Amino acid sequence: MKYEGSIYRPPSEADSLILQVTIGCSHNKCTFCGSYKDKKFRVKSFQEIKEDVEEAKAYARYIKKVFIADGDALIIPQKRLVPIVQMIRDAFPKLERIGVYGNTKSILKKSLEDLKELKRLGVGIIYLGVESGDQVTLDRVCKGTTLDKTAEAAKKVKEAGILLSVTVLLGLGGVERGAIHAAETGKFLSRIDPDYAGALSVIIVPGTILADEVKKGTFKVPDPYQLLEELAIMISNTNVTHTYFASNHASNYLPVKAWLPEDKEKTLRAIKHVLDQRDPSLLRPEFMRAL
Question: What is the pLDDT of residues 160-216, one digit of tens each?
């Protein structure tokens, strides 16, 4: 497989074949993200992708899941994307699901029929980085979209019958705006009602604009207990139909897995217990945190 640069995938795609069809991220302006700063965005040629598929087919013909990378492969125009997805489907007879990152812009560029076509071809889940339900926070980190547009994109994914998995970022509002960011994010999750929601915690990546803001003192990173307070506020304000919520990513100090609303009160009690105890041994050690 001819991978270029570092490859990132959602935790739930750990057992998937990672097929890199784009290089980098089509937006690549978020102040907190350093994942694709060393890459210039481009779409690989069909021949390049075909060679990787043929190689994977020779060694892992019965793979069940494929994740197509990099940061926003859904931005590929439909006429180019459909043959790629069809080729993947044809290559792996036991294939159950194709996953892909999308952002608000790339989803909205697709019509509902486009998304339904991708669903028929095997795209079963789209991962959408929401980050915050607070527009002020989104603007500060240069997310490049609005909450209304993101809600529209989320609705379109669900209407197409594709699973919607979203990520939000604890601490993104800094100490100053932490409680607002957390509450508004919980409310926004309620608004879009995703199938899955994952909460990560902000980690300052050297070389990013956010790292510069920390050095200047214009952004203060919440401490572990402030991040847990945000998590509790977020869950308290989340009223969804049936969402699997997890904060078990390596960036988090306290792993949480819960079905909401079923496990809401139990989860809040568990977080409160850790906050009341203030025992560092109950938290993930700093050296074990990672993106």
Answer: 999 999 999 999 999 999 999 999 999 999 999 999 999 999 999 999 999 999 999
Please check whether residue 156 is in contact with residue 118, taking contact to mean a CB–CB distance below 8 angstroms.
Answer: no
C-alpha 234/C-alpha 228 separation (Å) is 10
Q: What residues contact residue 40 under an 8 Å CB cut-off, 6+ apart?
A: 23, 24
Distance CA 239, CA 250 (A): 25
Can you tell me the distance from the alpha carbon of 172 to that of 73, in angstroms, rounded to the nearest whole number? Answer: 25
**Per-domain boundaries in the chain:** 11-288
**Nearest to residue 232, comparing CAs of 289, 276, 192, 166?**
276
**CA distances in angstroms from 128 to 14, 87, 150, 259, listed in the order given:** 17, 24, 9, 19
- Residue of 61, 50, 59 whose CA lies nearest to 92: 61
Fold (topology level) of 11-288: TIM Barrel (3.20.20)
**Residues of 58-80 as b/e, b for ≥16 C-beta within 10 angstroms?**
eeeeebebbbbbbbbbbbbebee
* 269 contact partners, CB below 8 Å, separation of at least 6: none
- Asked if 245 and 256 count as a contact pair (C-beta separation under 8 A), the reply is yes
DSSP state of 14: T
pTM of the entire predicted model: 0.95
pLDDT (tens digit per residue) in 114-134: 999 999 999 999 999 999 999
State the pairing for strand pair 22-23/257-260. Answer: unpaired
Instruction: Tell me: pLDDT of 39 over 90.
Output: no
Burial class (CB in 10 A: 0-12, 13-18, 19+), 248: middle
